[in-house]
Amino acid sequence: MTRLTRADLDALPAYVPGRNVADVARELGLAEAIKLASNEVPFGPLPGVPEAVATAVTQSHRYPDMGVVQLRDRLASRYGVTGDRVVTGCGSVALAEILAKATCLPGDEIVYSWRSFEAYPIIAAGIGATSVKVPNTAGHSHDLTAMADAITDRTRLVIVCNPNNPTGTSVRKAELDRFLDTVPSDVLVVLDEAYREFVTDDQVPDGLATYGDRPNVVVLRTMSKAWGLAGLRMGFLVAQPEVAGAIRKVLTPFSTSLVAQAAALAALDAEAEVTRRCAIIINERERVTEALRKLLPDVPTSQANFVWLPLGDRAAEFGAACEKRGVIVRPFAGDGVRVTIGTPEENDAFLAAAESAL
Ligand code: PMP
Predict the structure, then answer these.
(1) CA 194–ligand 1 middle distance (angstroms)
(2) What tens digit of pLDDT does each residue of 143-175 get?
(3) Measured from the CA of 223, which atom of ligand 1 is nearest?
(4) What distance in Å separates the CA atoms of residue 219 and residue 221, rounded to the nearest whole number?
(5) pLDDT per residue over 82-120, tens digit each?
(6) Which of 171, 219, 266, 356 is 20 to 30 A from 234, alpha carbon to alpha carbon?
(7) What is the CATH number of domain 49-268?
(8) Domain layout of the chain by residue ranges
């Protein structure tokens, strides 16, 4: 057959979303299944969000504000920066893609830790950049020294995922300070902080507060997790104004939808509820970690809303065993299993499944 798409994409692994709850429940003949596979927060949309969405929808025959002015200003004042430094997008994953597009030409290098967020290799390959994957430490964390050593004169972008998806591990201020000091000034460092709201270790820096003023640092945040907008797609980044301006030039026009803008504004009004919900998740994370360590002692400490089970070759089998009991987790074959922290009842169901599987 005549080839119509790039041959190099054949070898690229596809992004694997967590399995659909309805499909799994139907297959198993259960009334419902529990999804702990996509790192969502389980408590429903924040108060005010459904109403804001319903109102916004009445104007959905119109394009949204392409400049996203109201929301950008709101985010800017919430995070203590100027509005010209904020760029919003269709989820932070889209912004990661745009960042790669704004920095790399084909053959340029993107350095990141591995295993980390599965979208990174896909993003790099999509623009013809070369992925330089630096293996995690034995403790499943970023090896920042090795990452610094991996930077060459082809490197345009370095991604630090803190806390790291899927291992939950995080890098602390002293090592990140040292790392950022060694990165050449013409290499952009992305601090992907999708899980920042769940961090309790005071040695793990808030990238925006701590490094936001560095010229070559971009901080990436999402409203999909703690802010409960995963289904509406809203992420944002904060960069220096010149960097933000260049990124905006390659943004897909109108990619922060009318509904997403309205929902994000409503969510920002409900921050007290976000804090309350995160506290429940954090408590549950500690409880689940402690229970799991009785079954599997080397579960790493997580600063995110999920935990990592370093099961190696047993990962796929463990995932299948949980699914048989109606609990959908996210196995990474040959490596480990990521389990999102759910409600206390959901976590109990997972722990029971884990106990029988292990
Ligand atoms: N970064 C990391 C580390 C993530 O885990 C995710 C979500 N899985 C994202 C970015 C993207 O989130 P979204 O596109 O929903 O904003």
Answers:
(1) 6
(2) 999 999 999 999 999 999 999 999 999 999 999
(3) 16
(4) 7
(5) 999 999 999 999 999 999 999 999 999 999 999 999 999
(6) 171
(7) 3.40.640.10
(8) 7-45+272-357, 49-268
pTM equals 0.97
Helix (H, G, I), strand (E, B) or coil at 328: strand
Q: 60-69: per-residue pLDDT in tens? A: 999 999 999 9
As given in the structure block, the two tokens for residue 104 are 């790399």
Return the CATH architecture of domain 7-45+272-357. Answer: Alpha-Beta Complex (3.90)
Contact 273, 119 (CB under 8 A): no
Residues having CB within 6 Å of any atom of ligand 1: 39, 91-93, 117, 161, 165, 192, 194, 222, 224, 230, 235
Distance of CA 29 from the midpoint of ligand 1 (Å): 31
d(CA 285, CA 267): 23
Q: Whose CA is nearest to atom 9 of ligand 1?
A: 93
Residue 177 CA to ligand 1 center (angstroms) comes to 24
**Each residue of 14-44: pLDDT tens digit?**
888 878 888 888 888 888 899 999 999 999 9
What separation in Å is there between the alpha carbon of 224 and the centre of ligand 1?
A: 7
Whole-angstrom distance, CA of residue 309 vs CA of residue 326: 18
Query: Are 40 and 340 a contacting pair, CB within 8 Å?
Result: yes
Give the model confidence (pLDDT) of 232-271 as tens digits: 999 999 999 999 999 999 999 999 999 999 999 999 999 9
Strand partners, 159: 112, 190
Query: Can you tell me which residue has the tokens 């560095």?
Result: 214
Rounded to the nearest whole angstrom, what is the distance from the C-alpha of residue 15 to the centroid of ligand 1?
A: 12
